[in-house]
Every structure is written in C-alpha cells, then in structure tokens.
Design goal:
The structure holds three protein chains of three kinds.
Chain A lengths: L1 H30 L7 H19 L2 E10 L5 E7 H16 L1 H23 L9 H23 L15 E3 H4 L8 E3 H23 L1 H11 L1 H6 L4 H23 L9 H16 L4 H18 L2 H6 L3 H16 L14
Antiparallel strand pairs in A: 1-2, 3-4
Helix pairs in contact in A: 1-7, 1-10, 1-11, 1-12, 2-4, 2-5, 2-10, 2-11, 4-10, 7-8, 7-10, 8-10, 11-12, 11-14, 12-14
Chain B lengths: L6 H13 L6 E3 L15 E8 L6 H18 L25 E8 L4 H13 L5 E4 L3 H14 L2 E4 L16 E3 L4 H16 L4 E7 L2 H16 L3 E8 L7 H4 L9 E5 L2 H13 L6 E2 L2 E2 L1 E6 L2 H7 L7 E4 L8 H14 L5 H20 L4 H8 L2 E3 L7 E3 L6 E2 L2 E6 L10 E7 L1 H4 L21
Parallel strand pairs in B: 2-3, 2-4, 4-5, 5-6, 7-8, 7-9, 9-12, 12-13
Antiparallel strand pairs in B: 10-11, 13-17, 14-15, 15-16, 17-18
Helix pairs in contact in B: 2-11, 3-4, 5-6, 8-9, 11-12
Chain C lengths: L5 H15 L1 H4 L17 H24 L7 H17 L4 H23 L4 H20 L3 H4 L5 E2 L18 E2 L2 E2 L3 E6 L2 E6 H22 L1 H11 L1 H6 L5 H25 L2 E2 L6 H14 L6 H15 L5 H7 L5 H11 L7 H15 L5 H11 L24
Antiparallel strand pairs in C: 1-6, 2-3, 4-5
Helix pairs in contact in C: 1-8, 3-8, 3-11, 3-12, 3-13, 4-5, 4-11, 5-6, 5-11, 8-9, 8-11, 12-13
The chains are: A mainly alpha, B alpha/beta, C mainly alpha.
C-alpha cells in the first residue's frame, strides 16, 4: 500500500513534467499542425536560461590571494561574484541561491522572443509545406540550437541546485500515519508539481476565458472562416507559438534542480513528448495533460521491484507498450479530434 | 600546435611521386608488400585518436584529445617533455617514434559502437593509422578493440572500466591502462568497511547494460566478502533521466548504504536525486545512511555539484597526486590548457607514451613486436607508481585510488580528495578469475 | 530492357555506371594535395554509401509511395544485422546464409509490426512504429543481452560453434571464399584508387535493389500505392481494401532494411544495439526527405550526403585546418582557423543541421532538385530529367490547421 502510494507521488511528479512538455508541444503540433522536432530544444533552452542566469549572477571579478596557490603553484586567483560584492555576502549569496526560481522571470521574455522569432522567421513559411519538410527543417534547427549551446556551455551536465530552503525531503508518510521514512518526497518536487498545475491551469483559462483564446480556438477549428471574418489569425498564431515556447522553457527551468541540464537533454525528451501528445490525442490539450500524468504514473509503477520481478525489463518499455495499447484500442488516442494529422 | 600534413600524403610526396605515374596496380588482401598493416615507410608515422566528440561524453573526449596532442608534442620533442622525463623507460628522446615524426588523425566515436568502428576503419583504410586509441565507455572500446584485432593494428584503450575489456572480450592486439570494475571493488570495499562498519546492508542501483552489471557484480562480491549483505540489486534503464521512482523505495528497504553503479549523466542524475530525497540526512538501523559511487570521474562529478561532498568512490588517477610523474604531467598540461587534466586525459597520455616506448624497444612498428614488448612490461613514473602490463590479459596492474568528494573545495577542479592509495597487490586477481574468464587473447595479428 | 522503357533503361545504366566508378569518382583529389581530406573513396565509406542507399531506397518504397511515415525502420536494420552475425557464429563467415536469414527475419518482423501499426494512419502510425522500434532497442540493450550482447554489440568469438567453418577456413567475412576486405589498390599519377570486394558486393546488391524499386515504382502495384497516398478514403469508398497493398509495401521496405543491416554485418561482423535506436530510424527519414522523398534517386543522394558529413567532416581537426591555411600569414591563418573551427571536427553536427535547414528552405524538392535546376539551366526545353523523376515528386500535403 505504502509502496503504491509512494509511486503514485513519484508518478504525479514525472507526469507533471511530461504534461508540461507535452502541453507546449500540443499547442504547436496538435493545433498549429507543425511537426516541431525543435520542441525538445525549446525545453533545453529553457533549462539553459536557468544556467545563464546563474552565470550572470555569479559573474565575478578576480583578486589574487598570495597566501594560497593554485594547482600549478601560482598565486591563487579568488573569484568574487559582483552580486556578493554589491549586496554583501549574505544578501548576494541568497540571490545566487535563488537563481533557479528567479530564472522564471528571466526565461519568460527570453523564451517568448525565441518563439516569436522562430515562428516569424522560419515556421511560418512551412505551414503549407508537407510534414516531411517540417520535420527536416525543425530537426535541423534543433541540432543547430543544441550545438550552439554545447559551444558555449560544454557537453557535461551543469549543476543548478534548488534554493537551500527547498532542498531535502518531506516525510509524507508521517502525515498519513505511516512509519517514518516510508514515504518521503523532496520539497522541490512538490514545488514542481504545484508549478506545473498552475501553468496548465493558466493556459487552459487563457484559451477558455479570454477573447484571444476564443479566437485561437476558432482558428484551430477552421482557420479560413475565422480569416473571412476579418480576424488576423496569423498574428494570433504567432502569439500562440510564443506561449508554447514559454511553456516548454518554463518546464525546462523548473526541471534543472531535478536533472542537471546538458545540451542534449532536449533530444532525450523529444521522443517522449511526441508519444505523450499522440497518446493524448492530436489537437486535444486536456488529452496531452492526461496522457502525461498517465504515462508518468505507469512508468513509476513499472519501476517497482515487485513488478520487475514478474516482468523483467518492463520499465524499459512501459511507455511504448502503453502507447501501443492505447493507440490500438482508441483510434485517436485518449481525446483526439477526428481528422487531425490522420492523412 | 603541430603543423603538418598527414602521413599518407607525405609518403606519397616523397616516395610515390617519383615512381608513380605508370605504376602498375597492386593487389593486396589487407596488405601486400609490407609485413603488416599500414607499415610506415616515410619519415612520419600516423596514430589514430578515436574519441567521443559529440554526445554525452564529448567533454571527456575533448580532454582526451588535449592529452593526445600534448603527448604527440612531447614525443616530437616539443614542450617540456611532460612525463617522458619521469618515465622509467628511457627510449623516448623527442625524435618521434623510431626516428619517425608522430602525426595524428582524429575521429568521432559518438559513444556508439557502429560510429566508433566506422571512424576507426576510416583511420586505418584512409589515413594509414598504425595504432588506434581512445574511447570513453566500454561498449565502443570493446568493439574497436575487436576491429583492430581483425585489421591488424594495435589498440590502446582509453577510458573503459568494464571487466570484459580485458576479460571475456580481451584481444591480443588490445591493451588497457585504465583500471576495471573488479579493481574498484577490491580497493573500495576495505575502505567502506573501515569507515561505515563491517555489517552494512547495501542496495545497488545499476545501469542496465554490460558495464553496469560487471561493476555491480564486482562491488557486491568485494563488499560481501567483508561481511556486508546485499539486499537488492535494481537495474535502471540507460535512458532514465529521473531516478525518483528507483530511489524512493530505498530508504524503506532496510538498506543503509546505496551503491550507484552509474556513470556519466546517469551518475549525475541518480546522485542528485538521491541527495534530493534527503537520503544522506537519514538514519537507518541506527546508523547514518551512506551513498557510494564506485567509479568517479571528476569531469562528471562537477555536474553533480555539491552533492558529491563526502561521497566515496574510486578513480584511476587524480591530478592532486604528488609523485614526480603526476606533478610533471599536471604542470605540462595545466600550463598549456589552464586547468588540470582529468583521469581520462591521464590514461590516454600514458597509453600513447607506452605505445611509443614499446615500438622503440621492439625496434619495429610490427604489431606482433609491439605486443611482445608490452607483454609483461614493468614500468614506473607515469603517475600510478610501479605498474605491470600483464601478459595474460593485457591489463595494467597498479595502485588504485579511493577518493572522496571534498567538503571544502578551493577551486573549480578541487572536487575530490584522495583518501587511500590501495596497493596493487590488493587489487590483483587471477587471469582465470570467474569475472574475467571465458575469453582468449588469441594470436597477435599483424594484418599481412 | 528488362521490362523498362527506354528512358528508364538509360536512367538505370547511368546509375550502374555511377556505382561502378564510385571508387574513382569519390577520389577526386591527389593524395598529396591538402584537399585529399575530402576524398571518400576508401572501402568503409563506399560500403556505407551503398548500404545506406539500399536502406533509403527501401524506406522510400513505403514513405515515398504510400506516404506512411515509419519512425521505426531501424528496428528492421538491427534485426537483419543480428540475424547475419548469428549465422556467422553458428555456421561460417560466408555471408550468403546470413543475408538470406536477415531478409527473412526482418520480413517477418515487418509483417508483425506492419500488421499492427497499419491499423492506424498518419501520425498515429508513426508513433506506433516508433514505439515498436524503441522497445526493440531498449530490450536489445538490456534484458536481451544473451541474444544481442547488449552494449558491446554482437560479435563472433573464437569459441563459437561455426559448424560449417572448415579447418583453416577464412576467418573474415567472404562470399564463397572471396574475402570482403580484399582490395585492389591502383596508384595512378598522384591518385590512389581502391577497388574493394566488399564495396562491389554491396554495389551489385544495391543496383539490384534499385532496379527492383524502379520496377515497383512503374508497376500497377506502385500505382496503387500512390493512389493510397493521394486519397486513401476515396480508395476505400471504391470498395477496395488498401491494407494488403500498404502492408506489402511495409514488408518490402522492411526487407530492404534487413538486407541493409545484413550487409552492414557482412562488411563488419559486429552488430551494435544503437542501430535500432530512434535516432537511427530518424536518420533514414532525414536521408529520404533530404534527398527528395518519392523520387528514385533522392534517397540515395540523401544517404550519401549524411554519411559523407558524418565520416569526413568529423575528422577535420584544428591540425588539419592549420595545414590548409598554412600558406597564409600567421594572423590571417589563425583567424580563418577560428572561423572554420566550430563547423568541423566536433562541430560536424552543426554543419549538418545548418545544411538540413538550407536544403529544405531553398530546395523544397530535396537534393534531386539541384539536378533538375541545373538541367533546366542548360536545356532550354526543360524536358523531363531522368534522375529527378518529377512524376513522383512529393505533392504538398494539405495543412491541418487550414
């Protein structure tokens, strides 16, 4: 019982990451109809927004400390971040410590700009091209983006810890009357879960309750008619692309303390995010979110020793197995719309 | 920077141009007139440096490449000579190898067996490389070693830690300077027992592929021999990025030590997640919970940041060692590149020097002569103390370092501190040890 | 000739000539020139061109004709490789049994996966094939290690049974005694040409594969597949069951992939699990689109293009760059090296990514369009070019959000 509860918690957390990534992708892929292989790269760029902010905050000046030596025997150059020099070690240190949450503010404008630039400069010209061409151009873009990141940040993972006050874990089991240490759950993952729910809720509310969202939804359903009504649907699609990029980016920012970012993390998540979106059903936002949580939880269950004892290697394939079963039993995934990407 | 053109071109420039033009076609099955594959006939000799330049191990590959360039510079008489001056064998005099200037070609293994073999084949077929070296994980290393055996060139393995490289997949043309999973276990277990007590209960999380399994087997055997028990061994998929669902049950399993048989990105993430779940602050069975990372890489440890503090593991070499060889190498590498070398850089630098020296001692580039010169070769001064290249399996036997994540690092490279240098006797095993049995070196293959 | 009209015959003959002279064509620079770095006429790469050409031709029979985009074709390549290496382990190094088994097993595997996946169309089909291939890869890398040798890759050990291996028989891959690694090296002038048995073996099979694909493209069966692509619904309404046709195309293209995988193992007797990873499946998709999906020659060009960059550009290091620009003054030399540096050696991915984008932006029909445009430039009549085969150029698919 406790083991199952534990894995549900883990699954919710994995699921919220999957759902968040899939949400951004489904806005572009499921609704704008662009097969965006650069979506993983957007997630990665978001994570590197956090790294960049950390670098900016720890931007340092050097002072030479003659009393100590470096590995070659030369006097040691001590680096002091400007932030610490300006605000004092206490406040400065705290600002650096909070660089990941602060990066949210940094990432929103950056990612929206990247999204705009991508849509205006490139994707726009591919709406009417075959999906094959979209795959090639966005795959090329993804490679270029990740190689640029590799050039500046290297290939190794970069540590981006959560703020001090969010490290450590909550003993969830005690609250529920279990023994200590049975169900533990890191604070940061709670934050991630709540953050994901907020973003998902925000995007849904935006599309449902604003005029803008209404027009976009109408445009997804029938672009031509909306255009005939004299509405500039193209500009709104650009905005949607920007929002999708921002959602992907924010998912990346908040994921950095869980998974130290590296330049190829986008490719690692790319296949998975496509699977989640398609299992959810093309063109359905709730479907993507639902599929994200479903796959996250099932993946957690599959990693349990008890399950692996019966089915060795099940955790290697669970996501794909579930995807196949769902797609074979439900023709358009969980909540897909008829006619989207079926030809 | 060494500025030069490649071997084949020079060969042809000097030799072939004169007699070419009307030359008749030559048939050969791998080679013909020459006694062995890619026999260097001109004034230069080409080595092939095959390292990951893209993919997750690209930074490790880049560091290996730096060390290779440094080694070539030193062999050709440039720079300060690095470890050539401390190396116990004195045949290297800065005039290249056997008087031939050393040149090199590079390739990208992508950390994939196919790509690694394609790259190695192009070095052998196109560039005329006489020796292939490199690698940053065991799969590609074993694959390229087998290829070199078939093609008839020498393979000097880079960073490969699997028992299989010199165990069931050993080859006559292949040599490994790096240590292996068995040695990690043998070196680490006594330190673990001394620090954490002799009756600990261990829980293994293991990367689900060959290297992970051999390390898991080695560590479990070594710790169990000292009184520990192993409560569970859980395999994790290679593609995992979030290990939460594997780590969460650990605390309630009755184990009080978590052993992470992961490397690279897997290691960074599993360690980060383990610390995130607060394992290190917990007490189980009345004792502090501990985490162990049997194979450390400083480059990768940097990715885990503060999480490595206090965590024990083993490593092949560390730049803070104070013997003459290590100091000379760190000085030379640090002066050229501005930061200390990694263990990957160290092992490939040693391999290059060892190969060059073996050729000089053998008086021939013939792979079989080189094999003979390296088998049973004893040397010192390359940073690991007295070392033996064992004839039976082409594995180097030397001291192993047990290291610990440093609590108060002084700079960005000061992540690990050496807590014990385990003497070579303690990590030596029988060539027919069950973990290594099943393979055969076979005959050396000169390719002709 | 051989069931082809005059135009196709000429086309086929051109392809045959190009294939046979590949060892010369790919070696345009004399060995002593500093551009010899760009020569690609060495056995391994030439073999790869032929093998990935077969893989892409086969993929194109499915994708180019029916429009079904499989994202799991690497699984069949991997199965073919494993089957072939197992034949080496059990019988002998003769490649023939291995290749036959590779085609059969991959065909059966494709039949199974195709039968299930073809119940869905569009993106749902793509994800189903992707899921099957990823499961195959993940299992091959881990729990199926006894069969696949996992991370290390399946290889032949000296203590393998090899029941048909005669005493003192060849211990390298061969076809009835003719070793694949046997080469004829001909130095001509400053050039050096390598004629390799393995390459010509692959080349002959590649030509046969190409011929078969040509026949399929021109056959009523091919016409039926194209009809599926243009409007499957209308086909169904006419009372025709399209499934057997698409399934046949899927199995044929799976067998092509298996053949390619078998050949890979025949040239180099080791089968790594990475061959089945989604990136490998993605690579053949990229090859086909890059070259020009639906055209006969395009996929082969795309395959050559990607393999060339992977093998040639990744080997250009700073040392080589300095060699090229050595004739310039030092400052200028260093500047040029600094500029070129990010795009070669470890940056070859970047160059490839940029080229993907440039090609798809400026050459919407893929690489074959270069040929078309050149031809249009030189012949005013703008006749139908053979190589480009415009009859089957991709038509832009309608857009969902429209």
């Amino acid at each position: 019982m406790d083991a199952i509860l534990l894995q549900i918690l883990n699954g919710l957390d994995k699921g919220s990451a999957y759902a968040l990534i899939a949400l951004g992708l489904t806005l572009i892929f499921g609704t704008l109809g662009v097969v965006n292989f650069a979506h993983g790269a957007l997630f990665m760029l978001g994570a590197f927004c956090a790294v960049t902010l950390q670098r900016i905050l720890t931007f340092s000046f050097e002072t030479v400390d003659d009393s100590r030596t470096d590995f070659l025997g030369n006097p040691l150059k001590v680096e002091t971040p400007y932030v610490e020099a300006w605000f004092g070690p206490q406040t400065g240190g705290a600002i650096i410590d909070w660089s990941v949450p602060l990066a949210i503010l940094f990432a929103i404008p950056v990612m929206i700009s990247i999204g705009f630039a991508m849509e205006r400069g490139l994707i726009r010209h591919f709406y009417k091209r075959p999906h094959a061409d979209q795959i090639l151009v966005t795959f090329g873009l993804a490679i270029v983006l990740q190689e640029i990141v590799k050039y500046f940040f290297g290939a190794n993972p970069i540590p981006t810890p959560a703020p001090e006050s969010f490290r450590g874990a909550l003993d969830f089991g005690i609250l529920l009357g279990f023994d200590p240490n049975v169900i533990i759950y890191p604070y940061w993952r709670l934050v991630y879960f709540l953050f994901a729910m907020t973003i998902i809720g925000g995007v849904f509310a935006f599309l449902r309750y604003t005029t803008f969202g209404m027009v976009v939804r109408a445009g997804m359903a029938d672009r031509e008619t909306v255009g005939l009504l004299g509405i500039d649907i193209d500009r709104r699609f650009t905005v949607m692309f920007g929002i999708a990029a921002a959602v992907a980016g924010l998912a990346g920012v908040m994921y950095t303390p869980i998974n130290a970012p590296n330049y190829h993390m986008g490719m690692d998540f790319l296949v998975l995010s496509f699977v989640v979106v398609v299992v959810g059903g093309m063109g359905s936002l709730p479907g993507a979110v639902l599929a994200g949580f479903l796959l996250g939880i099932l993946e957690s269950f599959a990693s349990m020793n008890e399950v692996k004892a019966i089915l060795p290697g099940i955790d290697q394939i669970i996501i794909y197995l579930v995807a196949i079963i769902i797609l074979l039993t439900r023709p358009r995934g969980l909540m897909g719309r008829r006619g989207v990407m079926e030809e | 920077m060494v500025k030069s053109l490649k071997t084949r071109r020079d060969v042809l420039k000097s030799g072939a141009l004169a007699g070419a033009g009307l030359a008749t076609p030559v048939i050969f099955t791998g080679s013909s007139a020459s006694a062995f594959t890619n026999e260097p006939t001109g004034a230069t000799v080409t080595l092939g440096f095959n390292v990951p330049q893209t993919g997750p191990y690209a930074d490790e590959g880049a560091d290996e490449l730096r060390a290779y360039e440094l080694a070539v510079e030193h062999l050709n008489g440039g720079g300060d000579g690095g470890m050539i001056s401390t190396f116990s064998s004195k045949t290297l005099d800065g005039t290249g190898i056997l008087g031939k200037k050393v040149e090199y070609v590079t390739g990208d293994t992508q950390t994939k067996t196919d790509a690694a073999r394609a790259s190695a084949r192009s070095m052998i077929e196109k560039d005329g490389a006489i020796m292939i070296t490199g690698g940053s994980s065991s799969g590609p290393a074993i694959a390229v070693q087998a290829l070199c055996q078939e093609a008839g060139v020498i393979f000097m393995a880079g960073l490969t830690h699997s028992n299989d490289t010199t165990g069931k997949d050993k080859k006559a043309n292949g040599f490994r300077h790096f240590f292996n999973g068995y040695m990690s276990g043998a070196a680490l277990a006594p330190v673990l027992a001394a620090r954490y007590g002799a009756d600990r209960v261990a829980y293994h999380l293991t990367a689900d592929y060959t290297w992970g399994w051999t390390q898991e087997e080695s560590i479990a055997a070594a710790t169990e021999a000292l009184g520990w028990s192993t409560i569970d061994k859980v395999r994790t998929p290679l593609a995992s990025t979030d290990f939460s669902s594997y780590i969460a049950p650990v605390l309630n399993s009755g184990a009080d030590v978590l052993i992470l048989n992961h490397y690279g990105g897997n290691m960074v993430n599993s360690l980060t997640n383990a610390v995130e779940f607060g394992l290190r602050e917990k007490e189980v069975n009345g004792r502090a919970f501990e985490i162990v990372v049997p194979l450390y890489s400083r480059l990768m440890a940097a990715g885990a940041g503060e999480n490595v503090k206090g965590i024990l593991g083993s490593t092949n070499w560390h730049w803070s060692l104070q013997d003459q060889g290590s100091k000379a190498f760190v000085q030379s590498f640090g002066t050229k590149y501005g930061f200390p070398p990694s263990q990957a850089a160290h092992t490939v630098y040693c391999q290059t020097l060892l190969y060059a020296d073996a050729v000089n001692r053998a008086g021939s580039f013939n792979p079989c002569a080189v094999v003979e010169a390296l088998e049973g070769f004893e040397f010192d001064g390359l940073g690991n103390g007295p070392t033996l290249y064992r004839a039976e399996d082409h594995q180097c036997f030397k001291d192993v370092l047990v290291v610990q994540g440093k609590e108060n690092p002084e700079n960005a490279f000061d992540l690990l501190e050496v807590v014990e240098i385990t003497p070579v006797e303690q990590v030596t095993y029988d060539p027919e040890h069950p973990m290594f049995a099943g393979g055969a070196l076979g005959e050396c293959n000169p390719g002709a | 000739m051989a069931g082809l009209d005059a135009r196709d015959t000429r086309f086929l003959l051109i392809v045959v000539a190009l294939t046979l002279f590949t060892p010369i064509l790919l070696q345009p620079f004399p060995e002593s020139s500093s551009l010899a770095q760009f020569n690609a006429g060495y056995p391994d790469l030439m073999q790869r061109f032929a093998i990935f050409g077969i893989f892409a031709i086969g993929f194109n029979i499915l994708f180019g004709l029916t429009g079904y985009l499989s994202f799991g074709h690497a699984a069949f390549l991997g199965v073919g490789s494993y089957a072939t290496v197992w034949m080496f382990k059990l019988l002998s190094y003769n490649v023939l049994p291995g290749l036959i088994l590779a085609v059969i097993t991959s065909g059966l595997f494709a039949l199974l996966i195709g039968y299930i996946s073809l119940r869905r169309s569009g993106i749902y089909f793509s994800i189903l094939t992707l899921a099957f291939a990823q499961m195959s890869f993940n299992l091959a890398y881990s729990v199926l290690t006894p069969i696949t040798n996992g991370e290390t890759g399946l290889q032949v050990y000296t203590d393998d049974p090899q029941y048909l291996l005669a005493e003192g028989g060849l211990t390298t891959t061969h076809i009835f005694g003719l070793a694949m690694n046997k080469s004829l090296v001909a130095p001509v002038g400053g050039w050096e040409f390598t004629f390799n048995v393995g390459y010509y073996f692959c080349a002959v099979i590649a030509i046969a594969a190409f011929y078969l694909s040509l026949r399929i493209f021109r056959s009523p069966f091919g016409m039926m597949l194209r009809a599926v692509k243009s409007n499957q619904q209308r086909m169904s309404y006419t009372g025709l069951n399209t499934r057997p046709y698409t399934l046949a195309a899927f199995v044929i293209s799976g067998m092509y992939a298996g053949l390619a995988g078998g050949l890979m193992a025949s040239m180099d007797p080791l089968a790594g699990a990475e061959r089945m990873q989604w990136t490998a499946s993605g690579e053949v998709v990229l090859m086909t689109i890059l070259g020009g999906a639906g055209t006969l020659m395009g996929p082969v060009l795309g395959a050559g293009f990607i393999k060339y960059f992977e093998n040639i550009f990744s080997k250009i290091n700073d040392n080589v760059l300095h060699g090229w620009f050595a004739f310039l003054p030092d400052g200028l030399e260093d500047l040029l090296v600094t500029i070129v540096h990010p795009f070669v050696g470890k940056g070859w991915h970047l160059t490839l990514g940029l080229l993907f984008m440039l090609v798809v932006i400026f050459l919407p029909g893929g690489l074959v369009e270069v040929g078309q445009r050149l031809r249009r430039l030189f012949t005013r009549r703008g006749g139908t070019p053979d190589a480009a085969d415009p009859r089957h150029a991709p038509k832009s698919a309608p857009h969902v959000a429209e």
